[in-house]
């Protein structure tokens, strides 16, 4: 993953290198899966849903979102007085752009500031899970409640 291709990039930090290393395998995984047990995250196919159950990564994204993000972005990702709604943003945000914002934070057009989460180990190793959950929410395949999930598949 080349984090230097983003507009306004800064020199890659150790946290960015860690994120790239953690996500490297995910970025090159096959996008098509036969069922949840063989599903692998990819930015093009970030989640798996069957009979209203989600893959464990998407479920974990729900858990991580509600432990770290919903305080500002609202319990359903619909925004609050502190931070904007994420559902519209997730319709157009690429995985690389999402990673950039989560790691480095950003200042919105309304001057609200999102801090970077590069040093938060409850977020950084699970960026792909957060992306999967929020993408599933914005695609309308996951509701606002805790989604039922398939068991975690060990590699």
Automatic annotation (TrEMBL):
PROSITE patterns: CYTC
Pfam families in the cross-refs: Cytochrome_CBB3
Stretches assigned to the Cytochrome c domain: 19-138
Entry protein name: Cbb3-type cytochrome c oxidase subunit III
Endpoints of the signal sequence: 1-33
Organism: Thiocapsa rosea
Keywords, sorted A to Z: Heme, Iron, Metal-binding, Signal
Alphabetized GO MF terms: electron transfer activity; heme binding; metal ion binding
Presence of keyword Heme: yes
Xref: Gene3D superfamilies: Cytochrome c-like domain
């Amino acid at each position: 993953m080349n984090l230097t291709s983003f507009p306004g990039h800064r020199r890659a930090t150790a946290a960015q290198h860690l994120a790239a290393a953690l996500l490297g395998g995910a970025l090159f995984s096959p996008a098509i899966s036969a069922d949840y047990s063989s599903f692998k995250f990819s930015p093009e196919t970030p989640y798996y849903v069957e009979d209203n159950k989600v893959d464990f990564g998407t479920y974990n994204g729900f858990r991580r979102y509600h432990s770290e993000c919903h305080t500002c972005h609202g319990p359903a990702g619909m925004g609050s007085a502190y931070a904007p709604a994420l559902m519209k943003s997730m319709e157009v945000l690429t995985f690389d752009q999402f990673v950039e914002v989560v790691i480095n934070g950003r200042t919105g057009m309304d001057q609200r500031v999102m801090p970077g989460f590069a040093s938060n180990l409850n977020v950084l190793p699970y960026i792909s899970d957060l992306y999967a959950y929020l993408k599933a929410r914005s695609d309308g395949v996951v509701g606002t409640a805790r989604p039922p999930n398939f068991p975690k598949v060990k590699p």
